[in-house]
Q: What sequence folds into this?
């Protein structure tokens, strides 16, 4: 990753790293060379805790609230985007994180630096559809074998006074900008498959489905 030219964007897909030395090693030696990160609802709080407190979390929510997830994503995104990166032995500098994709059972969340990544709405949509198709093992999505876990809306943050977004049934993927319009965020609800056929490789397929529309 360090040897690649900056014209080639890099994506790192997280996994269930539960040992603090290993996760700290990733933070120190791998993440500084990633333009994009993908992770699930267990991996995000671990990375958040490591960056903010220097440890990992022992408990995570299998179905987290959108508001808490967005707050954690904002911290991770800004920390890795704005952190100073030192040159490695070859003289090539590190990268600033400009894309973060969280895939959960109930929804997909993608946060990007505008002007660097495009098609965020389409990427979140495709990731959500791929989640159903992969787990059900079927290219066709059957509403008879799917259900929604999300409510009809969500709060943008756990901070007091945060706004609330209501889903539009005609346009269910919600997108907005933050940080004076420099950051775009999209949330796509997932039609959760109720006839499970595949689970292994789900995160890899979902992240790749979203990424392919943005590179």
A:
């Amino acid at each position: 990753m360090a040897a690649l030219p900056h014209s080639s964007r890099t994506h790192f897909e997280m996994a269930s790293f539960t040992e603090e030395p290993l996760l700290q090693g990733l933070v120190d030696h791998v993440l500084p060379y990633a333009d994009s990160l993908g992770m699930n609802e267990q991996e995000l709080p671990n990375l958040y805790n490591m960056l903010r407190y220097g440890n990992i979390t022992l408990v995570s929510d299998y179905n987290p609230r959108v508001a808490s997830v967005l707050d954690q994503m904002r911290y991770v995104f800004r920390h890795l985007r704005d952190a100073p990166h030192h040159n490695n032995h070859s003289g090539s500098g590190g990268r600033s994180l400009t894309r973060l994709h969280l895939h959960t059972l109930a929804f997909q969340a993608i946060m990007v630096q505008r002007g660097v990544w495009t098609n965020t709405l389409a990427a979140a949509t495709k990731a959500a559809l791929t989640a159903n198709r992969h787990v059900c093992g079927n290219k066709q999505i059957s509403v008879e074998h799917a259900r929604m876990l999300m409510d009809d809306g969500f709060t943008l943050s756990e901070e007091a006074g945060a706004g609330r977004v209501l889903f539009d049934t005609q346009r269910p993927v919600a997108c907005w900008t933050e940080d004076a319009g420099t950051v775009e965020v999209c949330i796509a609800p997932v039609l959760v498959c109720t006839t499970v056929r595949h689970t292994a490789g789900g995160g890899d397929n979902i992240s790749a489905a979203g990424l392919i529309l943005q590179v």
User: Anything to note?
Assistant: The chain has one domain: 11-211. Confidence is low (pLDDT under 50) at residues 86-91. Strands lie at 11-13, 36-40, 99-103, 107-113, 146-147, 153-155, 164-166, 174-178, 183-189, 192-193. Residues 11-211 form one domain.
